[in-house]
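---------- Forwarded message ----------

FYI, see the Transport and Golgi organization protein 2 homolog record below. Original note from H. follows.
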Amino acid sequence: MARVQTAKQDTVCYYGNRGSSEPIRLNPGIYGLSNSLLDTPWKKLLKGKQLFTSIVNDQSLSCDGLVQELLNVLNNEELNTPDPIQEKQGDGYSKSLIQALSAVCVSSPHYGTRTNTIILIDAEGNVTFTERTMLDFDTSKWSTNSFQFNLQA
């Protein structure tokens, strides 16, 4: 999930290995990205955007609190089924895998979410970059690294 707000003449674009052959300029707003194109209307993506929006609109959260709440969103294992749009793109997969893929945090025996990244940038260009990586294929064990730095003009 991403909240895009630009200052001055900043431009934010989306570009991937599928879809448009040219970068797509993003207007200010909230976007979601899963294992498909930007803002593909899968139930898990819509649920993630809803949770993300409520968190980033909470002005009472500290930076650390914001990171923790966003990591909680990325680790939501609630299934979002049935989802005909996602299921249509999963031709050839087993029903159990398609169900597992419907969660924001995918957990199955041979495939799933293994890393979460949160990047926060404030109006002064201060960046907090937090990455959490799963250990031993266990969703209760994570290694977390966080870095703070300032963007250069």
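H. also flagged this: The helical segments are 43-56, 63-74, 84-89, 95-100.
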